[in-house]
Amino acid sequence: MHLSVQKAAFDAGAELNAFSAGVVGAGAVVSFTGIVRDADGTLSAMEIEHYPGMTEAAIGAIITQAQTRWDLADVLVIHRYGRLEPGAQIMMVATAARHRVAAFEAAEFLMDYLKSRAPFWKKEFGHDGATWVAAKEEDESALTRW
Amino acid sequence: MHLSVQKAAFDAGAELNAFSAGVVGAGAVVSFTGIVRDADGTLSAMEIEHYPGMTEAAIGAIITQAQTRWDLADVLVIHRYGRLEPGAQIMMVATAARHRVAAFEAAEFLMDYLKSRAPFWKKEFGHDGATWVAAKEEDESALTRW
Amino acid sequence: MDVLYFAWVRERIGLPREQIDTTAATVMALIEELKAREERYALAFCDLKSLRVALDQKLSSFDAPLAGVREVAFFPPMTGG
Amino acid sequence: MDVLYFAWVRERIGLPREQIDTTAATVMALIEELKAREERYALAFCDLKSLRVALDQKLSSFDAPLAGVREVAFFPPMTGG
């Protein structure tokens, strides 16, 4: 299990390779990378606030849940905080399992829970000032499928 | 769209980074890497045969179907053929989309179709000789969800 | 007791954390106490549906007891990932 | 007409491709013609449930007509990914 909550940028490709190299007996590796998206061309930056201490504990608990539910060879979660420009990578999840279905499902489970159960808050800075990103109804309801 | 059917090994991390760098406006990138798995410690190698010409056409058609079904910023498929040792990377799929659900679903769709609709055949070489990998019932029925 | 505020809760109250001496038995009682204090607290806690609370860094509910709790955190629904 | 064989179909028949002059109207008629030829063909085509066919590189069915087809391929269910 690899968990990092960090301010610094990360190299998703290098992380994926290191993760895959450390895995034994897995036939499937799934990765997800989240990127700051400038939806309507007005975003100058995003700021991610988090709750040090609780963030690591909450993500750790989500990973443990995934490991209980699926037979995973390994799990990786990297999540950044601080100021991020459009195009920057916000976070990354990787899962390794014997078969593809478990690797995919576990990665989606982790993403769904990280979205609304890990203590991060996004603020967007645009031409007309700053706004806190509102939690989406669909992100909350995504949890009901697990 | 990036499609490569090749004998040579590939660097999944470098491919992921190049793919992500080429994508504009995507908030989500999902990747899948398939690895030769030595299930019971008896596999010495795997040989993948394919149907040159049809392979590219079939994968191209599967990608087009995915692009029709989901709003994808880009798609990548790399699939190797020839002799592969345990631990070697067989193939890779990557999808980029605005939101995570489309990126995940499209990657799973591509994998499900590549499994049983792209003309590849796997032969496993072990201590007791060689056997052709049989198609799994579950891989055929996985298609019914799409 | 340490009380922490995040995101717009922090901005409305104007500080990230403070020490509060309270005899409030539940989270809800603490909220009422804070709302009665000053306008900025009333504003931060006006819509409980858009608020979440963690007790000692675990998500909890407004009717949870505060006995033995050392750290209370208030924040909006999380937007990670 | 080019006829191609892959995987264990290729191994049973003993060659990857051959040119066949046939008047068979359908894939099924071609299969019957081949089976009547030699034991190794009979063996390769004995279980049609575990066989697939592609006409000009597109998956097809055993009752498909061969008129205008230049390339027929026989192979087991695919195991990619």
Give a verbal description of the structure.
The complex is a heterotetramer, with two copies of chain A (about 150 residues) and two copies of chain C (about 80 residues). In chain A, about 45% of the residues are buried. Chain A has helices at about 10-20, 55-70, 100-115, 135-140; strands spanning about 1-5, 30-35, 45-50, 70-80, 80-85, 90-95, 120-125, 130. In chain A, α2 (about 55-70) packs antiparallel against α3 (about 100-115). Chain A has four helices and eight strands, in the order βαββαβββαββα. Chain A has about 150 residues and is α+β, with helices and mostly antiparallel strands. In chain A, the strands form two sheets. A four-stranded mixed sheet of chain A has the order 1-4-6-2, sandwiched between helices. In chain A, strands 5-3-7-8 form a four-stranded antiparallel sheet, with no helix packed on it. Chain C has one domain (about 1-75): Ubiquitin-like (UB roll) (Roll). Chain C has helices at about 5-15, 25-35, 40-45, and strands spanning about 1-5, 15-20, 50-55, 60, 70-75. A five-stranded mixed sheet of chain C has the order 2-1-5-3-4. Chains A and C meet through α2, α3 and β7 of A and α1 of C.
